[in-house]
Design brief:
Elements: H1 3-46
């Protein structure tokens, strides 16, 4: 493998890892939002209705 092919391969690997990291971050943020909303809904259900 020559040097240009290695650079190309490293570039594609980096791009793939960035997409993977971005997807993981979006999944984490979405999970956090859902957990917060679920907790708020649960707390609202525990409050007695006046």
């Amino acid at each position: 493998m020559n040097q240009l092919a290695q650079i190309d391969d490293a570039k594609y690997t980096l791009i793939g890892r960035l997409f993977t990291l971005g997807g993981s971050v979006f999944f984490f943020i979405g999970s956090l939002i859902v957990a917060i909303l679920a907790y708020k809904s649960y707390q609202d259900l525990l409050q007695p209705q006046a």
